[in-house]
TrEMBL record:
InterPro entries: DUF92_TMEM19 (IPR002794). Keywords: Membrane, Transmembrane, Transmembrane helix. The keyword Ligase does not apply. It is found in: Membrane. It is a multi-pass membrane protein. Belongs to the TMEM19 family. One of its GO terms (cellular component) is membrane. This is Transmembrane domain-containing protein. It comes from Spironucleus salmonicida. The keyword Protein biosynthesis does not apply. The chain crosses the membrane at residues 16-34, 46-70, 77-94, 100-120, 132-150, 178-197, 269-289, 346-363, 370-392, 412-437.
Length: 438
């Protein structure tokens, strides 16, 4: 190991030294320095190992460790280095656990080899511009090679590793090791979660979600994934299709609805993600407590209502030239809260039917399908009634505003509920329809 490091210091540019040391030190440690018979001894000597590394840093700083800690811009990376050594040296603490060793292969071989991708031209990932497509393939290849030398190959964990390494995170060393380790216990859920994180990151980069909106969405999706694939598919479907609908003909929508410019320019916020998910989350919590499948159906119905309302309002206001009162059916100004239209209603029906298809994840008959559709329509119509009477609508600059501003003239409703509050109430109504009548 010392010979390899010495040659790398002498013969290679400084930018390569850190990654070469990254691969060699960890690889030698888990393959040759530690084995199951040595675990009790190494565990007992663990504090001394840390002291030894500290002394090495003091004695030969210019030989190995300073080049390791410095990038090509001479900026220190102490957190990444500390994380790396902490994870590798923790191997004996885990009693040389095979799964943890395989996870370290992703850190040592996968992340180590991926580091060389920055020195070659390659297209950046859509979900993380700091990572490249070449880096993903190098992570996969490096993980498999290191696992082969370790004595076992797990292709699925290598796939998780290459996705986990490219996730935007404070420490990709920690992320790749953790996700790879968890993939041995719940492979499909971890794999799906890494994909969902990439999608959320991509939407944030494209300004469909704010940074906080992306973060809270990841936690919401993770909870849905933990509880039910059906509930996850419903909420994820609402999220993706809702974002697409909100961007449809957005210039025309900006002319009609004067108070949505921030959402369309910066993306959906954390509060919007929370407002549309709280009913579904509470239903899933009750499912965990009672194990009653009815609450899973209620969760899907809540997500179906959210998409029904989103399609009805966002698509309706740009597709229709005539908007009507939900009770009297007299014509009202397009963009007013609670207004309905033929095009918006049909769009809402389509949205509800799309989410209803989630029942085929574990098909139990069309009864569940139509009850979810019915609950979504009831909730969406309730949204229109509440919006018409309890949410402010004002005319301003030939458009509509949903909050009182200087120069606006009230054309309907009182300023009692915000748009987010209306969404929460309507989604709860859909969930309650299932809980009470299904």
């Amino acid at each position: 190991m010392i010979i390899v490091l010495s040659i790398s210091v002498i013969m290679l540019p400084q930018r390569y030294i850190r990654k070469i040391t990254h691969i060699v030190t960890g690889f030698v440690f888990i393959n040759y320095f530690v084995n199951p018979e040595q675990c009790p001894l190494i565990s007992a000597l663990y504090p001394g190992i840390g002291l030894f590394i500290y002394l090495i840093c003091l004695i030969i700083p210019n030989f190995i460790f300073v080049p390791i800690l410095l990038s090509k811009n001479n900026k220190p990376y102490p957190f990444e280095i500390i994380t790396y050594f902490a994870l590798v040296i923790a191997y004996p603490i885990f009693k040389c656990d095979h799964k943890f060793g395989m996870s370290l292969c992703a850190l040592i071989g996968g992340d180590g080899l991926a580091g060389f991708s920055t020195y070659f031209k390659s297209k950046a990932l859509p979900s993380n511009p700091q990572k490249t497509i070449l880096g993903v393939f190098l992570t996969l290849f490096g993980t498999i090679i290191c696992q082969w030398f370790y004595g076992d190959i797990n292709i699925f964990s290598a796939l998780v590793a290459c996705l986990g390494e490219s996730i935007p995170a404070i420490s990709d060393n920690f992320t790749i090791t953790l996700l790879t380790y968890l993939s041995f216990y719940s492979p499909y859920k971890v794999f799906i979660m890494t994909i969902l994180i990439h999608i959320s990151s991509f939407l944030m980069i494209k300004r469909k979600l704010t940074k906080n909106g992306a973060i809270i969405s990841i936690f919401i999706l993770a909870f849905h994934l933990y509880v039910s694939y059906k509930a996850l598919l419903a909420f994820f479907g609402f999220g993706i299709l809702g974002v697409i609908a909100s961007q449809f003909r957005k210039q025309k929508r900006l002319q009609i609805e004067k108070t949505i410019s921030t959402e369309l320019k910066l993306g959906r916020s954390a509060w919007q993600a929370f407002d549309n998910s709280i009913a579904s989350i509470i239903c899933l919590i009750f499912y965990l407590i009672t194990k009653n499948e009815k609450f899973i159906t209620a969760s899907v119905a809540a997500s179906a209502e959210c998409l029904t309302d989103t399609f009805g309002s966002d698509l309706g206001c740009v597709l229709s030239n005539r908007t009507y009162h939900p009770i009297t059916f007299r014509q009202v100004k397009t963009g007013i809260n609670g207004g309905i239209s033929i095009e918006g209603t049909l769009s809402g029906f389509i949205g509800a039917l799309i989410i209803c298809m989630c029942v085929f994840v574990d098909y139990k008959g069309m009864r569940e399908f139509w009850w979810i559709f019915f609950a979504a329509i009831i909730g969406s119509y309730s949204d229109s009634l509440i919006g018409m009477y309890l949410q402010y609508s004002g005319e301003y600059d030939n458009g509509v505003v949903t909050t009182p501003i200087d120069g606006s003239v009230s054309i309907g409703g009182i300023n009692f509920f915000s748009n987010g509050a209306v969404n929460v109430v309507a989604s709860f109504i859909s969930a309650l329809v299932i809980i009470i009548f299904y």
